[in-house]
Amino acid sequence: MTTKSYIKDYPRPQFVRDNWLNLNGEWSFRFDDLDAGERERWQEKLAGTHTINVPYSYETPASGIGAEEFHPRVWYERSVAIPQEAEGKRVILHFQAVDYTAKVWVNGAMAGSHQGGYAAFSFDITPYAAFGADNRITVKAEDSDSCTQPRGKQRWLADNFECFYAQTTGIWQTVWLEYVEERRLDSVKMTPDVDRNTIRFDYEVCGAEAGGDLRLEAMITLKGKPVKRVSLAADRSCLSVEVDLTHEAGGPWKKSLWSPQHPNLYDAEFVLHADGRVVDRVFSYFGMRKVSIENGRVLLNNVPIYQRLILDQGYWTDSHLTPPGEEALIEDIDLMLKMGYNGVRKHMKIEDARFLYWCDVKGLLVWSEMAATFEFHDRAIEAFSKEWVEIVRQQYNHPSIVTWVPFNESWGIPNVLRDKRQQKFAEGIYHLTKSLDPYRPVIANDGWEHTVSDIVTLHNYVETGEGFERRYASKEAIVSNETLCNQWKFAFAEGYEYRGQPIMITEFGGIAYQSDEGWGYGRQVATDEQFLERFEGLTRAIKSKAYICGYCYTQLADVQQEINGLLTEDRKPKIPLEKIREINLA
C-alpha cells in the first residue's frame, strides 16, 4: 500500500530525494512581544528562555510550552552539523509551514523570508553555511490577529468563540535540509489525460542555462513493471514532454486508472544527467484520473460518481493543527473509509502533504480548501491570492484532489451577495485557479451566494429529514433564489444564475450529544438511538433528491468547543462505525 518512493515521515512525498535531514525536535525558543529581537540582534545569538518541540506551535501541549495566549513574535534557534563531504553541493533549508511571516538567518546572515501560514517554502543557504562544522539556524516568526491574513479557524480574539479555536503561531510543520547539486530538477508538474492515455511532464530545471550536455530521463513503472522510458535534452529551464502510456499490445491499460475503488499509482523516477554523470535523481508518482462535469453530474474517469464526503478540520487534542505523527493521518483516513465515506472536505486548512499522499494511496477523494480571511480589503486580496497560487501549484500533482475550494460561506467576501468588488474578487480567484488547473472543478464560494462555480454547493443544518425535504422539494425554487437554501441565505449572488451545474449539500448534520461544555447544530441528542434516527433521516432525505449528486457531513471529529464529530477529539467513535457505514452505503 505504498509507492516505490515512499519514505516514512518524508515531508514531501511526491518529490523524494535520498539525501535529507529532519530538523524536527528540540529548538531554543523565545517570545518577543516588544519586537526587540532584531534591534538587539538575537539572530546572532538567541538567549532562549524556553525549549520547544518543533514542529508543534507554542500554543500546544505537544510543544512542551502549551501557552494559548497570543504572542505576535516568536524566535527559534538550533545548531545543525553540515558534513564536510557535502561541500560542493547546495544546501537547501525547507519549511513545510510557518504561520505567518518567517525570517530566517544562518550563522547570523539573512537567508530569506516568506509570508503565508500554509504554503511550504525553502531557501538555498549554501552561501552562509560552514561545511564540517555546526551551523546556527535562527527563525523569527511574526503573526497577528488581523482578519486580512488567511487564518481559517484560528481565533482573532483572546478566547475561543463560536467555531474558532486557539491560534497557531510559528513553525507548525516539518523543518528539514537536503543536499543537492547546482544543476538539478526544481519541480515536475504532472498532468494526466485519461482519454488519450498520456501523461504530460512540465519540468523546471535549475542550472540549465549554464550549458553543457544536460539530459533529463523519466522512467515510469506500474506495480514494479516497466511502462515507458523517455529522454530529452535539458537545454532550457522550462521543458515539457508528453508520454504515451499505451500498452505495447496496442490498447490502453484501463485497469490502471486511479479511483477510490482502484487507487492505481504509477511510479516515476526522474534522472538528470550532466556531461555523462548523474547529478540529480528524484522519485515521484502519479495517478491517471479525470474529473469532469456533464449533464449536472460530476464524473470520475467519465463515469458519474456520487460523492459521500465528510468534513475534517484536522485538529488534535495535544497538537492542534499539527498531526501528532504520520500514523495519526493514516488513522483518520482509515476511519473515514470504514464509515463508508469516499472523500473528505479538508476544511479551512491546507493539510500536511503526507495526508494527501495517503489519500492518493488509499483512494480517498479530497476537496482542498483555502484558509479564509475575514475582512475584505486590498491587503486581504493580495495576501490571499499570492498564497492560494502557491498552494495550488504545490498540491497540483495529487490525484486524490478532485476539487478546489478557495472560499467558504462568504468568509472574506461578506457582502458578495450584492457588492460588485467582492463578486469580481470571487470570479477572479475562480479564473486564476482555472488558469493554473483547468482540469478540476472550482467552487468559488462553498455554501451559498455563488458567483461563478463549477458545482453549486449548499449548506443546511436543518434538524430532520422531513425539514430537509420540505426545504428542497423544488430544485427550481432553490436555484432561482425564489426560496432560501437554508434559513438565511440564497444559493446565488445577485446578478448570477444557475447554469445546469451539479448540486451538492456540502454541510449538514453536525449532531452533538448532550453536554454543557460544547455545541453542535440543532438540539443535542441524549441517546444513540436519537442520534442514528436523525443521522439516517437527514442522509436518506438528501439521497432521495435525484438532482443532488453528493453530500458532505459535518464532521469527522470534535474540535475544542465544537463537539459535533462522529468521533471524539482523540478519535474514539461515538457510534459504531459499521452503523454509519450502513447508512452511507444504503
TrEMBL record:
Residue span(s) of domain Glycoside hydrolase family 2 catalytic: 293-582
GO molecular function per UniProt: hydrolase activity
Alphabetical keyword list: Glycosidase, Hydrolase
Limits of the Glycoside hydrolase family 2 immunoglobulin-like beta-sandwich domain: 184-289
Keyword Hydrolase: yes
Family classification: Belongs to the glycosyl hydrolase 2 family.
The protein's name in its UniProt record: Glycoside hydrolase family 2 protein
